Structure formats: structure tokens, C-alpha cells
Amino acid sequence: DSSDDIEDVSLFDADDDVSRRSKKSKIRHPVASFFHLFFRVSAIVVYLLCELLTSSFIACMVTIILLLSCDFWAVKNVTGRLMVGLRWWNQVDDDGRSHWVFEARKVSAQGSKTSSEAESRIFWLGLITCPMIWVIFAFSALFSFKVKWLAVVVMGVVLQGANLYGYIRCKVGSRKNLTSMATNYLGKQFLRQVRFPGFWKPS
Questions:
Q1: Transmembrane stretches, by residue range (predicted)?
Q2: Are 87 and 77 in contact (CB under 8 A)?
Q3: Would you state the pLDDT for residue 4?
Q4: Per-block average pLDDT, block size 10, for the chain (203 residues)?
Q5: What's the confidence (pLDDT) of residue 109?
Q6: How far apart are CA 7 and CA 43, in angstroms?
Q7: Are 142 and 135 contacting, i.e. CB atoms less than 8 angstroms apart?
Q8: Three-state SS string across 44-98, please?
Q9: Phi, psi of 178 (to 5 degrees)
Q10: Is 164 a domain residue?
Q11: In a domain, 132, yes or no
Q12: So what's the pLDDT on residue 199?
């Protein structure tokens, strides 16, 4: 039995007036957009080139873990809030119960989203692509018997996968919403197959 509670709250309303003035197509936070990709891409580049740059495994491992840690903190606390209006964290109350909190910026009074479309694409592209690359590295290290790199690769999968999971929860809602989305999708596929039984048969 898990003691975690899920709470969805609203993100800072004070940002709405400022963000409403900018066009959606422009990158309004270039520094945040840069560092959103810089740390995670740098960790991947160092992992790929470290054996060519130095023979010290410890130096490579420390460098990669530092880059991954900086990326985790920056994406979790800064770039998600600025670029897409999302933020998540875990807090423990006085009773020792763990609460997962997922924030999403409110839609403006006109009903339009305040996030820049260009920044949103950059954010989600980096957030989804890099964990997939680390998963590929994990299989590669496992099948090539590079045991010493497994800890580093697993660290990349865990840290970047945690941010991906947290922001997906912020985007679509609580665990109940995730289950509902999966159920609805499977239900639609079942109804489509029942309605068109010959659709799946080979011609």
C-alpha cells in the first residue's frame, strides 16, 4: 500500500499577464531553452566521446553524473515552468506522508494557452528523445558486456526518465486520468474491430 497522495494545483497566475504579451511562435526564454538541451545533450556527447578524450573512467563517470544532475534540477525546477508552464515535486507533511504535487499554469481569460509553441516543441522533443537514447545505451552496454558503464547509463535512464514521467503526469493529470486514457484507447480499438470485423483480415 503506497502512502503517496496525488495533488494537482495551479501554477503562478502572476505570469499570465507577462506571457500574454508575447507571440506563441517566438522563443521567449532563450536561456532556459538553451540549458534545457545543453546539460542532457552534453552528457550524451561525453558518454560517446569519453574513451577518445581520456582513459580515466572515474573522470568520465563524474562528469556525466554531474551533467545529469544539473539537467535533472534545471528541467524539474526551471525550464518546465518557464517553457511549458508545468512543474512537479514531492513533499512530506507533518505526518510523514509523501505527496506528489503536479502544477499546471492556468489558461488565460481568453481561453488561449500562454506557452510558446516553439518552446513547447523544444521542451518535449528534448524531454522525450534523450531518455530514449539512454535506454539504447543501456541495452548496448548490457549486450556488449560493458558492466562498468551500466551504473552511469542507469543513472541517465532514471534521472531523465523521472522528469519525463513527472511532466507527463503534469500534462495529462493524475494517475486516474492516465488509466482512463489507456482504457478509452483500448475501448475505441475494440469497438473499431467489432464494427469492421473484416478490416483486420488479409485481402
A1: 30-49, 55-75, 122-143, 149-168
A2: yes
A3: 53
A4: 51 47 69 94 94 87 95 93 87 80 68 70 94 95 88 94 92 60 57 55 47
A5: 45
A6: 32
A7: no
A8: HHHHHHHHHHCCCHHHHHHHHHHHHHHHHHHHHHHHHHHHHCEEEEEEECCCCCE
A9: -60, -45
A10: yes
A11: yes
A12: 43
Q: How far, in Å, CA of 37 to CA of 39, rounded?
A: 6
Quote the domain boundaries for residue 167: 30-105+125-192
* Residue 197 maps to a domain: no
Residue pair 189/200 in contact (Cβ under 8 Å)? The answer is no
Q: Does 160 map to a domain?
A: yes
- The cell numbers describing 24, all together, are 506563441
Residue 7 grid cell: 495533488
Q: Check residue 146 and give its pLDDT.
A: 85
Q: How many domains does the chain have?
A: 1
List, as one string, the DSSP characters of 4-27. Answer: -EEEEEEPPTTHHHHHTTS-TTS-
- State the residue for C-alpha cell 512530506: 92
Q: Are 86 and 174 in contact (CB under 8 A)?
A: no
**Residue 22 to residue 108: CA distance in whole angstroms:** 13
Query: pLDDT at position 140, please?
Result: 93
